[in-house]
Design a protein that fits this description.
Chain lengths: 110, 890
C-alpha cells in the first residue's frame, strides 16, 4: 500500500532518511528504495513527501546535496550526511530507543 | 545556523527561480527513470512500469508543487503576485484608485501634520541632556502652585534640599536690555540667571564658560553670555569674542561665553546676565523661578519629600515669611513647559483620529461596493481551486497597498502643510522651534498607513472569505447584487461616519462659538487705532522716578505734536502682558483692603484713559498737576470699588499701597481716590476684569520704579487718526531723539495685542473646524456612495416597481428614506457620543456650555441638509430608470 507512509510517525521519515545516508551517500530513488527494502515493504515513501523532507533537511544543514554520476552513468543528486546530521541521527536513535522501550513497558504492564 | 541557511537558500530560489526549478525537475525526472528501470528489470514493459510508478508516487508535477509550497519564499512569491495583481487592478480602475488614494492622503496627511506637532511638543524630551531629571521647585498652596518665589527662599532651598545635583534660579520676567556702542541702540531680550544655570541644564557652552560664583555675587564683575544667534548677527560670529566688553544699559560687560546654536529656553533671551540673588528676609517679592537637576537615583516622589522638608526647615527659621498653608513641591520641568497646551493638542489629535476613522469607513464602503462587482471573479477563482485564505490575503494586500500609497502621499502633504500649520500656531505654544518631520513622524505615518490599510480592508476581506460558491455564481448571472451581509456592513459604516461627523461638528461648533464670543467680549478699552511700543529703561539713572517722568514729559510732547497722533501716553504694562500686583490698606477702614496683594497695579501718564478710551465713571482723571510735587492720588476701577467699598463712596477715601514693604522701597505714600474708571480685561478676554488701581507715573515711589524697570518694559501708547502701523517709523524716530540710548521696540497695534491674546482659541477653532469640514465631506461622499451603489443594484427592482405603477415620487421617497434612515441613526449615535465627549472641551470653552442646545441643533440641521443632498442625487437617478430597459436586463 502506497498509503503506508501515512502511518509513519511525524518526524520519523527524517530519521529514516538520515539513517539511510549514514551508510553511504545516496540519491533520491536509492533512498526511497532502501527505506522500502529495509522495512521489508512496510514503508513506502511518496516522492512528494520525500523531496519535501530532502529540502527541509538540507535547509536545516543536516544533509548536503551534490550532483554525481550513478553506476549507470546517469547524473543524479547524491545526498550526504553532514557532521551535524550525524549528531542529530545519534541523538534521535537514542531518544527513539528510550521511547520505544518506555512504550513497550507500558503496553506489557497489563 | 539553520535559520540563516534557510534564508540564504530561500533567497537563492527566489532570485534564481529558473535554475532551482530545473534542478528539482531533473532530480525528479531521474527519480522516475530509476524507478521505471527498476520495474523493467523485474520484467515489466516500459509502459507498465511507468503506470506502476505513477500509481505509487502520484503525479510528479503535483509532487513538485508540494515541494515548492513547503518553501517560505513561495509564500513571498505569491504575495508579490498579489501585489502586482493589485497594482494592475488599480491601473484598470483609475477613478476608484484616485478616490481611495485621495481620501487616504487627506486622512493620513492631517494626522501626520498634527502628530508632528504633538510629537515635538508633548512626546519628545526637552532638548537638554537627561532632561527627565529637570524639575521646577515651587511654592504650593491649597489652591494651586506658584512657580515664582523670593530670593531668600530660593537660596535656602538650594542650600538645604537634598537629592539635587544642581539648582539654579532665574527671573521669570525681564524687561530686557539696550545694547549700545554701534550706531542705534538695540533692545534685546535678556534673562538673569544664577551661576550654575547652564550646568543645571547640562548645556556645554559653544564658546567660553558660564558664570563663576564670584560673578554671581552682588558687586561682582559685570559679565554676559551671548546667544548663538546674537553672536552671529551682531558680532559676525567673531571667535575671539570671549573676553571682550560690550555696553549694556550704559554699563560695560565682559563677554564670558556664547551658548550653543540649538540652545533654547523659556523665557527666550538674546543674552544672559548673572542673577546675583542675595538673602534678604525683608524682600518678599516673588520674581525668581527655581530649576533643579535631580540626582539620577532620586525619583520625583522622593524629591518632593526632600523639598518639602527643606520648606519646613525654612519655616522653623523664618516663620514670619511663610504662610501657614504654604508648602514646597516639585513639578517635572517638561510638564511645566508644555502642561498648559497638552489638553488642546490631545483634543486636536483625537479629532484627526476621528477624521482618519471616517476615511477608513469610507474606503471600507468603497471596497465593499467594488467587492460586490468582483464576487463573480472571486467565485470563479474559488471554483478553480484557489483557497479562501489566498483570496482574503489578496484583498488585504490590495487595501494595504492603497494604505501605503495614501500614507506616503499623506506624509508628503503633511510636510508641505507643516509651514502653514506653524504659521497658524499661536506664539504661546511652547517648543515650536523644535517642530520637525523626524523619523518618529515617518514611523507614525507608516504605522498609520498599515493599520488603516488593514482596517478598511478587513470588512471586504471578511466578506470575501464568506463568499458562497454556488450562490455567488448563481447571482452573478442575474446581475450582481450585494450580499445581505455586505449591505448591512455598509449601512453600519455610514452610520458610524455620520456619528463621528456629529462629534467633530459639535466640537468645532462649540469652539467657533467660543471664539466668536471672545471676539465680541468687550475688553473695556477701544483697541482700534492704538499703536504701542515697548522700551527698556535699564540705565541706572532711570531708577529715580524723576528721571523717568522727565523723559516721559519730553517724549509725549513730541509724540503728541506728530501729525496723525491724536493723543499719547505711557503705561507700566499693557493689558494681557504681565504686570505687577500689590496689596493695599484703606485708611478709613483698617479691617478692609487687600492684604493678599492680588490687586493689579498700573502706573500711567495723564492721557492713558484717553488713548485707550477707558471710561471715567466718577470723579476726575489725572492731570499734569498730579506730578511729584502734587498731592498723592489714585484711580480705582469699578471692580475694586465694588469689592472693597461696597455701598460706599470711595471718592475722597485714602489707600496705602505696598503695606509692609518699606524695607525694599515698595511702600507707597497714602493716596486719595480721585476717580473711578471702567473695568478693563487685564489677564485675558475670557477672565473677568481684575481689581485694578492706577497711579500717576510721576508719583511712583523710586523703589517701585527701579523694580519695574528691571522686570517689565515700559509701554508707549499712541492713539492715531489713521492706520496705527503707518506711524511706527515716526514714533520710533521721535522716541529715539529723546532717549538716544534706549530703543523703542516691539511695535504692535492694540488690535494685534488683542488678537494675539486669543491666538490659542483661534488655532483650536480653525483646526477643529477644518477637521469637521473634512469629516462632513467624507461622510457625505460615503452616504452618496452607498446609496448610488444601492440604486445601481436595485435597478431591476425599481424597474419592476415602476412597471407595476409606482410613480417617480414614490421611487424618490424610497431611496431618500433609505438614506435618511441611516442618517438619523448616525445622528442619534453621534449626539449621545458628543454629549459624552464634549465634556473634554470644557477647559477650552468660553461663554458656551458643552451641551449647548443651539450648537447641537445647528449640527443636526446642517448634517440633515448635507445628507438630503447626498441622497437626492442617487434618488433622482433612480427615478430616471426606464422600466423597459431595466426589465430587459433580466
Amino acid at each position: 500500500m502506497a498509503d503506508k507512509q501515512s502511518d509513519l510517525v511525524q518526524g520519523t521519515l527524517d530519521m529514516l532518511i538520515l539513517k539511510t545516508l549514514d551508510l553511504e551517500p545516496m540519491h533520491g530513488y536509492g533512498i526511497s528504495a532502501r527505506i522500502e527494502q529495509m522495512s521489508k515493504g512496510v514503508f513506502r515513501v511518496n516522492a512528494g513527501s520525500l523531496f519535501v523532507a530532502f529540502q527541509r533537511l538540507q535547509r536545516a544543514g543536516l544533509i548536503k546535496g551534490e550532483w554525481k554520476a550513478t553506476e549507470n552513468s546517469r547524473r543524479a543528486k547524491y545526498y550526504v550526511l553532514t557532521e551535524q546530521g550525524r549528531k542529530r541521527l545519534n541523538n534521535e536513535t537514542r531518544e527513539w530507543g528510550r521511547q520505544v522501550a518506555a512504550i513497550a513497558r507500558i503496553l506489557q504492564a497489563s | 545556523m539553520p535559520t540563516l541557511r534557510t534564508i540564504a537558500d530561500g533567497l537563492r530560489s527566489l532570485f534564481r527561480k529558473r535554475r532551482v526549478d530545473t534542478e528539482l525537475d531533473e532530480e525528479l525526472r531521474g527519480f522516475l527513470e530509476m524507478a521505471v528501470e527498476e520495474k523493467m528489470k523485474q520484467g515489466a514493459s516500459r509502459k507498465e512500469a511507468l503506470r506502476a510508478v505513477r500509481l505509487e508516487h502520484g503525479n510528479l508535477e503535483a509532487a513538485k508543487q508540494v515541494v515548492r509550497d513547503a518553501r517560505w519564499e513561495t509564500f513571498l512569491g505569491t504575495c508579490w503576485q498579489d501585489v502586482r495583481c493589485g497594482l494592475r487592478m488599480f491601473r484598470k480602475n483609475p477613478g476608484f484608485t484616485a478616490v481611495a488614494v485621495l481620501t487616504l492622503t487627506l486622512g493620513i496627511g492631517v494626522n501626520c501634520a498634527i502628530f508632528t506637532v504633538v510629537n515635538a511638543v508633548l512626546l519628545q524630551p526637552l532638548p537638554y541632556p537627561d532632561s527627565q531629571h529637570l524639575v521646577l521647585v515651587q511654592r504650593q498652596f491649597p489652591d494651586g502652585r506658584y512657580p515664582a518665589t523670593s530670593s531668600t527662599k530660593f537660596l535656602f532651598w538650594r542650600e538645604h534640599a537634598r537629592g539635587f545635583e544642581a539648582m539654579a534660579g532665574y527671573t521669570f520676567a525681564s524687561s530686557g536690555v539696550n545694547l549700545t556702542g554701534a550706531g542705534e541702540p538695540e533692545r534685546l531680550h535678556s534673562l538673569r540667571v544664577s551661576g550654575d544655570f547652564f550646568r543645571t541644564l547640562g548645556v556645554q557652552l559653544f564658546l567660553g564658560r558660564g558664570f563663576t560664583d564670584d560673578e554671581d555675587r552682588p558687586g561682582g564683575p559685570n559679565t554676559v553670555v551671548l546667544s548663538h544667534d546674537l553672536w552671529r548677527r551682531d558680532f559676525h560670529g567673531d571667535s575671539r569674542i570671549v573676553g571682550r566688553t560690550i555696553r549694556l544699559g550704559g554699563q560695560l560687560c565682559t563677554v564670558v561665553g556664547v551658548a550653543p546654536a540649538n540652545f533654547t529656553f523659556t523665557p527666550a533671551a538674546d543674552l544672559w546676565t548673572p542673577l546675583r540673588a542675595q538673602p534678604n528676609p525683608q524682600d518678599q517679592t516673588n520674581v525668581y523661578r527655581v530649576l533643579g537637576r535631580l540626582r539620577p537615583e532620586v525619583g520625583y516622589a522622593r524629591a518632593d519629600q526632600y523639598v518639602r522638608a527643606a520648606g519646613e526647615e525654612f519655616r522653623q527659621q523664618h516663620a514670619d515669611l511663610m504662610n501657614d498653608t504654604e508648602t514646597v513641591s516639585i513639578r517635572g520641568y517638561r510638564d511645566a513647559v508644555v502642561g498648559d497646551v497638552r489638553p488642546a493638542l490631545l483634543i486636536l489629535f483625537g479629532a484627526v483620529g476621528f477624521v482618519l476613522l471616517i476615511a477608513c469607513a469610507n474606503l471600507g464602503n468603497l471596497l465593499l461596493s467594488r467587492f460586490t462587482v468582483r464576487r463573480k471573479e472571486m467565485a470563479v477563482r474559488l471554483a478553480l481551486g484557489a483557497s479562501r485564505l489566498r483570496l482574503t490575503r489578496q484583498l488585504l494586500i490590495e487595501s494595504t497597498l492603497l494604505g501605503i500609497t495614501g500614507g506616503g502621499m499623506g506624509l508628503a502633504t503633511a510636510a508641505a502643510a507643516l509651514p502653514l500649520l506653524l504659521r497658524l500656531t499661536p506664539d504661546s505654544l511652547p517648543r515650536l522651534g523644535e517642530v520637525r518631520l523626524d523619523w518618529h513622524v515617518w514611523t507614525f505615518a507608516f504605522v498609520a498607513a498599515l493599520i488603516t490599510g488593514i482596517l478598511f480592508g478587513l470588512a471586504p476581506a471578511m466578506q470575501g472569505a464568506k463568499t458562497g460558491l454556488g450562490e455567488a455564481l448563481h447571482e452573478s448571472i442575474r446581475g450582481a447584487s450585494a450580499s445581505r451581509g455586505a449591505t448591512r456592513l455598509q449601512r453600519l459604516l455610514v452610520i458610524g461616519e455620520v456619528g463621528l461627523s456629529v462629534v467633530l461638528l459639535v466640537g468645532a461648533g462649540l469652539l467657533v462659538q467660543t471664539f466668536w464670543r471672545l471676539q465680541h467680549e468687550s475688553p473695556g478699552f477701544d483697541p482700534r487705532r492704538v499703536l504701542t511700543a515697548q522700551m527698556t529703561l535699564d540705565n541706572q539713572r532711570y531708577n529715580k522716578t524723576a528721571a523717568v517722568a522727565q523723559l516721559e514729559d519730553q517724549a509725549l510732547a513730541r509724540l503728541e505734536s506728530l501729525p496723525g497722533v491724536e493723543v499719547a501716553a505711557t503705561v507700566s504694562n499693557l493689558p494681557f502682558d504681565f504686570g505687577p500686583d500689590m496689596n493695599f490698606a484703606i485708611e478709613e477702614n483698617p479691617s478692609g483692603g487687600d492684604p493678599s496683594g492680588s490687586t493689579e497695579w498700573r502706573a500711567i501718564s495723564p492721557h492713558y484713559l484717553q488713548v485707550m478710551h477707558i471710561t471715567l465713571l466718577r470723579g476726575r482723571n489725572f492731570t499734569d498737576r498730579d506730578n511729584v510735587s502734587g498731592a498723592p492720588v489714585v484711580l480705582i476701577n469699578q471692580a475694586l470699588a465694588e469689592r472693597f467699598f461696597p455701598g460706599q463712596n470711595p471718592l475722597g477715601q485714602h489707600i496705602t499701597i505696598g503695606v509692609g514693604a518699606e524695607a525694599v522701597g515698595l511702600a507707597d505714600r497714602t493716596r486719595e481716590i480721585v476717580g473711578i474708571v471702567g473695568n478693563t480685561k487685564e489677564f485675558s478676554l475670557s477672565r473677568p476684569a481684575p481689581e485694578t488701581f492706577f497711579v500717576p507715573a510721576a508719583q511712583v515711589q523710586d523703589g517701585m520704579t527701579a523694580i519695574t524697570n528691571r522686570l517689565i518694559p515700559m509701554v508707549w501708547v499712541v492713539r492715531t487718526s489713521g492706520e496705527p502701523h503707518m506711524l511706527a517709523k515716526a514714533v520710533q524716530r521721535e522716541l529715539l531723539t529723546v532717549t538716544s540710548q534706549e530703543a523703542p521696540d516691539n511695535f504692535r497695534s492694540m488690535e494685534d495685542v488683542l488678537s494675539a491674546s486669543i491666538g490659542q482659541q483661534r488655532f483650536n477653532m480653525l483646526l477643529l473646524a477644518m477637521f469637521a469640514g473634512l469629516a462632513v465631506v467624507l461622510g457625505a461622499v460615503g452616504l452618496y456612495g452607498v446609496l448610488a451603489n444601492l440604486v445601481a443594484q436595485r435597478t431591476n427592482e425599481i424597474g419592476i416597481r415602476m412597471a407595476l405603477g409606482a410613480n417617480r415620487r414614490e421611487v424618490l421617497r424610497l431611496v431618500v428614506r433609505n438614506g435618511m434612515r441611516m442618517t438619523f441613526a448616525g445622528l442619534s449615535l453621534g449626539i449621545v457620543a458628543a454629549l459624552g465627549l464634549t465634556r473634554l472641551l470644557v477647559g477650552l470653552l468660553f461663554g458656551v456650555k458643552p451641551t449647548d442646545a443651539f450648537t447641537f441643533a445647528s449640527v443636526v440641521t446642517l448634517l440633515c441638509g448635507v445628507a438630503l443632498l447626498a441622497c437626492y442625487i442617487p434618488a433622482r437617478r433612480a427615478t430616471r430608470v426606464d422600466p423597459i430597459e431595466a426589465l430587459r436586463c433580466e
